[in-house]
Amino acid sequence: MSHTLSRPSQDRGALSVDEFCAWAGISRSRFYREVNDGRIVIRKIGRKSVVTTPDAQAWLAALPVANLREAA
User: Fold this and answer.
1) Which residues have CB under 8 Å from 6's CB, separation 6+?
2) 17, 28 Cβ separation under 8 angstroms
3) What's the order of all strands across the beta sheet hosting 48-52?
4) Alpha-carbon dihedral sign for residues 26, 13, 51, 48
5) Considering Cα of 29, then 62, then 18, then 2, what sign does the dihedral take?
6) Are 25 and 68 in contact (CB under 8 A)?
7) pLDDT tens, position by position, 11-42
8) How far apart are the C-alpha atoms of 8 and 22, rounded to whole Å?
9) What is the dihedral of CA 27, 29, 33, 36, to 10 degrees?
10) Is residue 70 over pLDDT 80?
11) Whole-angstrom Cα distance, residue 28 to residue 32?
12) Is the CA virtual torsion 20, 24, 26, 30 positive or negative?
């Protein structure tokens, strides 16, 4: 399954942790740091953790814009 980086598939209401990590290009440990710091909101379906599509898009939109002078 392929996800574009700009937005998760609109036909999906939520992404599993592994799907979110693949979409965002981050590790599971980074994912849980983001959750613990309150930047990613997770929801529970039984024991399964998911990130809703709007929450995934909000997380991406809230990332800081890179300063190209600092990145070089």
Assistant:
1) none
2) yes
3) 14-16, 48-52, 43-45
4) negative
5) negative
6) no
7) 779 999 999 999 999 999 999 999 999 999 99
8) 11
9) 120
10) no
11) 6
12) negative
Q: Give the total residue count for the chain.
A: 72
How confident is the model at residue 40, as a pLDDT?
97
The gap between the terminal CA atoms of the chain, to the nearest Å, is 33
If you write DSSP's letter for every residue of 36-63 in order, what string do you get?
Answer: HTTSS--EEETTEEEEEHHHHHHHHHHS
Q: What is the pLDDT of residue 42?
A: 97
